[in-house]
Amino acid sequence: MSTPFDGSWNGARSTITSQASVLNITMAEGRPSATGVSVSVGSPVIYADFTDDAPFTGVLSVDGQKILWSNNTVWSRDPS
Amino acid sequence: MSFEIATWYDTWNSTGLENLVQQKVPLDYATRYNLAFGEFVAVSNGYTVSLDARYASQVLAQIRTQAPGVLVYAGVGDAGLPATVADNREHDNRSTANIVASLQQQGLDGISIDSEGDGMGSVAELVTQLGPSFKAAGLGIAVSVPWPGNGPVGLYGENAVAAFNQYVDALELQDYSSAGTPTDAPLWVNAGVQASLLMGGVCTENSDVQTSLEDTAAWTEYALQNNLRGICSWRLDNDHGQQGTEEDVEPTFTGAKTVYDTVQASAGGAKKEASMGTPFDGSWNGGTCAISSQASLLTLTMPDGRPSATGAAVAVGSPVIYADFTDDAPFTGVLSVDGQKILWSNNTVWTRD
Question: Which of B213, B230, B264 is where one domain is finished?
């Protein structure tokens, strides 16, 4: 079963796939993949460990098109 | 910040667990529980905190079920502490990341460091290593202080005062191993420690250092009147038992009740709420919105005649807020790592004042 975060983000620079609630986040530009989890706190919430940076938490926008991250960045979902 | 009541509960004794299962334990007397004890253990990539005493998971589950609003910290001692600090120093703080992940996976809210031996010289450096990541993750740090009459520098070294003021949420003075809260607390304040970090400490288990009920009330009252953070007791599972020093057998909980009743009766009979703040508490968006809390339950005051919203705060790595805006819809937000913004699921961003 997929999570609400699954898909391609930021012009295909990041891709999120899932196995149950455990996520794999493929990053572009040579960055290592990150792992994370998806939980529900009203809206879907993602917690991901970017091993070349730090762990961050994000919330999915109600329209499912953005992830608003705790490091103040925003990812936009690619058109399907 | 309101007055915090913390206590300890053991995780190694089946009687203590059975008392919980039978709902004999008044868990509403405290707002935070330290589980005794976990330890720092080696893993493949450094160190982490393990809370694997025989009944730890069951005790935690009982507290979570019966007292869902309280905080629960992992208590840790000296075991593995100096090695954890050394590993962090040599490997870019990797053990801190392990500890944060471990606490989150176990559903814990923080850590209480009860070092009374060879780890004491490493405590100030440990809290410095843990502090930023714990804050970002919404986790708390407490230090349980033995023999507080020796003062912070005497116990933990010259860097202790600055490290504690910057990174620690609570200093649980074990005043029953010194002269008492009215003597110990001023000593720590005079050393430069913020009074708002200090918690008085009483011993409620039957032993030669047990605090009398009279002193329990007096030290609690002192903490209230001098704006300390709160009071901590060792330990609820074994509180004034009816069978001497038989561990966890027929506790009466009169020590915890004395603390609780003193807090409730403070300020001339006015009820003083015993609760923790959340990382979301404060004024937002130029004073137009305010968030206040009672335990992890939030009230959001809104501008322009909008009704107040209610919500809850949880930790999912960073603090996460879920709030029901009754004139709009429920939304979820995440606190930025610097604590200055809430990024909401409706694509709005609140900025802290």
Answer: B264
Predicted-complex ipTM score: 0.90
Joined tokens for residue B193: 């420690």
Chain B: closest CA distance from residue A75 (Å): 11
Q: Which of B324, B331, B335, B343 to mutate to test the interface with A (most CBs of A within 10 A)?
A: B343
DSSP string, B6-52: EEEEESS-HHHHHHHHTT-S-GGG-SEEEEEEEEEEEETTEEEEE--
Q: Are residues B109 and B254 in the same domain?
A: yes
Residue A65 confidence (pLDDT): 96
Q: Which residues contact B72 (CB under 8 A, 6 or more apart)?
A: B32, B33, B34, B35, B60, B63, B64, B107, B108, B109
The pLDDT confidence band at residue B345, using thresholds 50, 70 and 90, is very high
- Same domain flag for B159 and B97: yes
Same structural domain for residues B197 and B258?
Answer: yes
B102-111, B234-243, B245-254, B277-286: segment of lowest average pLDDT: B277-286
pLDDT of residue B271: 40
B259 and B329 belong to one structural domain? no
The alpha-carbon gap from A43 to the nearest alpha carbon of chain B, in Å, equals 6
Q: Do B316 and A39 touch (CB under 8 A)?
A: yes
Q: Which of residues 23-62 of A touch B (CB under 8 A)?
A: 39, 41-43, 45, 47, 49, 54-62
What's the Cα-to-Cα distance from B69 to each of B9, B23, B259, B263, rounded to whole Å?
17, 17, 19, 18
Number of domains in chain B: 2
| Shared domain check, B51 and B131 | yes
- The verdict on residue B172 lying in a domain is yes
- Write down the residue that tokens 């504690």 correspond to: B164
Domain housing B52: 4-264
